[in-house]
Specification:
Number of strands: 6
Strand content: 5-15%
Number of helices: 8
CATH class of the largest domain: Alpha Beta
Organism: unidentified microorganism
Strand order of the largest sheet: 3-2-1-4-5-6
Radius of gyration: 19 Å
Largest sheet: 6 strands, parallel
CATH superfamily of the largest domain: HAD superfamily/HAD-like
Keywords: Hydrolase
Mean pLDDT: 95
Shape: elongated
Low-confidence stretches: none
Oligomer: single chain
Protein name: Putative haloacid dehalogenase-like family hydrolase
GO molecular function, one term: hydrolase activity
């Protein structure tokens, strides 16, 4: 099914849709588990980190700085306050590394965006959640900036944010196509507000982004980024 007549805006998630992100966070978590191995097992550290992140979300939201704060808080708790200043600095350095990792476009991303741009049929935008400066910098480092006329970073992706995005772009939800890897954040709220969606799963998923999946008349599932062209 082609959507050329209906769609005016194609919105793309950023992390783990345009470039790899979660695997870098997973690597930092692994190194943190190694650092804290004298006090707890890797499973205990990871479960504690997940609980800490979940508890902190209403206060700190999503993003690298929020993750780093939870990383340190969990480490202090796991070690019963025995964490040294040097260990804290190691965790801070790990967090800073997450602000600089290479955002190399995933396979078929650049080529697909180039072809979509050449059609001049759609407005291509980035719609992501997290910290504004971090997300803007990742897009710049990716070298994909030229393909997008607009970027919006929000603290969370709910139906409200999707409706606001459409209002900001002066399009109806049914004229909008959302492309992303997270069924919970990229697909469900987009469908709920009346938009179309393309789900492209990534091989790693943050625990807080996992959710049940289901079919929908306005949803398409693909395995490779280039398959987007089959629908638009």
């Amino acid at each position: 099914m082609a959507l050329q007549k209906e769609i005016k805006v194609i919105a793309f998630d950023a992390d783990d849709t345009l470039w790899d992100c979660q695997s870098w966070f997973d690597e930092v978590e692994r190194r943190c588990c190694q650092l804290l191995s004298p006090w707890a097992t890797a499973r205990e550290v990871s479960e504690g980190l997940f609980a800490t992140e979940h508890r902190n979300l209403p206060l700190t939201g999503y993003g690298t700085k929020a993750f780093t704060l939870s990383l340190i808080e969990n480490a202090v708790r796991v070690t019963n306050g025995q964490l040294s200043g040097q260990d804290v600095m190691q965790l801070i350095d790990m967090g800073k590394e997450l602000l600089r990792f290479p955002t190399t476009p995933l396979p078929e991303v650049r080529e697909t965006l180039e072809l979509l741009s050449q059609t001049r049929r759609y407005r291509l935008v980035v719609f992501t959640k997290g910290e504004l400066m971090d997300q803007e910098d990742k897009l710049r480092r990716s070298g994909l900036e030229e393909y997008f006329s607009y970027m919006e970073t929000v603290s969370n992706k709910t139906e409200t944010e999707y409706r606001q995005l459409c209002e900001n772009l002066s399009v109806a939800p049914e004229q909008t196509l959302m492309v992303g890897n997270s069924f919970r954040s990229d697909i469900v709220p987009a469908l709920n507000c009346g938009a179309w969606a393309i789900h492209i799963p990534y091989h790693v998923v943050w625990a807080l982004e996992k959710s049940d999946e289901y079919p929908h008349d306005r949803l398409f599932n693909i395995e490779h980024f280039g398959e987007i062209l089959q629908y638009v």
